[in-house]
Amino acid sequence: xxxxxxxxxxxxxxxxxxxxxxxxxxxxxxxxxxxxxxxxxxxxxxxxxxxxxxxxxxxxxxxxxxxxxxxxxxxxxxxxxxxxxxxxxxxxxxxxxxxxxxxxxxxxxxxxxxxxxxxxxxxxxxxxxxxxxxxxxxxxxxxxxxxxxxxxxxxxxxxxxxxxxxxxxxxxxxxxxxxxxxxxxxxxxxxxxxxxxxxxxxxxxxxxxxxxxxxxxxxxxxxxxxxxxxxxxxxxxxxxxxxxxxxxxxxxxxxxxxxxxxxxxxxxxxxxxxxxxxxxxxxxxxxxxxxxxxxxxxxxxxxxxxxxxxxxxxxxxxxxxxxxxxxxxxxxxxxxxxxxxxxxxxxxxxxxxxxxxxxxx
Length: 361
Ligand code: ATP
What we know:
alpha/beta; 18% strand; 40% helix; binds adenosine-5'-triphosphate; two-stranded antiparallel ribbon; single chain; ten-stranded mixed sheet
């Protein structure tokens, strides 16, 4: 029994007792672009298995969003898709291609999904740099340069506005400290306040203020360039990293690769009311259609999703389903017989998913 991604457990008091448990969980599902549809159908095998074994009742509703939706409807995120998502308990999203910003960035802002939680953990028989990596990147998800406030001021000069607010920094820091409280009790705030004095300075101040409320959690700060190096040099030293939106995007990809493969890394876009779960990687067009993408990032996103549903609605069967998925992934990787090419094997996407589904008992 392993307890791999119970990172969300420490967030219970965000939701405690406020929500009535539904009979059926409506899950909106975006199959996405590139490798998205392949990893989605593989992941559905795992969801079916969990439903059979743990009796969690789900109603999966497919939602069109992304490059294909753009070419079909002229919009990457049509209103009809937004309506389905709004009427679901949660959303599971595969990677979207060139229109990614028009889909996930919009959804993050629309649902105020302010914290992007990205665990990176080394598993056996992967390409992990070390066997003892176990960290979580908590990335601010609503502001920074990713607000997309870019302008040309003349034909040869473009500028972008970096928006950092105290409130947004504080609430994401709160999430990071809560998560750390349930783990190894260490938070590393990552910024570049020696250069970006105002924006990163404000972010760092918010983190320091929150740190005062968590005396049991060790607090440190690193500049983003040092952190990038330390993630390779001694990744085992990190527990929870909290950082701004763009730094978090980059560092979490690095952390995932150091821990084995982008194809292993799930994420949760967390809000006070809603959450969206997705692999951290993109549509990987270079391997799309070959049936060799690693589905584990999406499968572990489902584990996070069930954990969140369990926490939000106080539903133990969802928590058990999440644990079962995490354990099944761990067992299949430990055996090392069914591995996709990114992990050094030759298995197909569906073979890895089937192997994982068969271990859900
Ligand atoms: P984005 O900016 O949308 O995150 P990206 O340009 O960073 O996209 P990805 O699509 O994330 O690129 O892919 C980077 C590389 O990682 C791909 O070329 C692919 O080889 C590999 N990769 C990503 N996801 C997977 C996966 N699930 N299985 C195997 N390899 C993957």
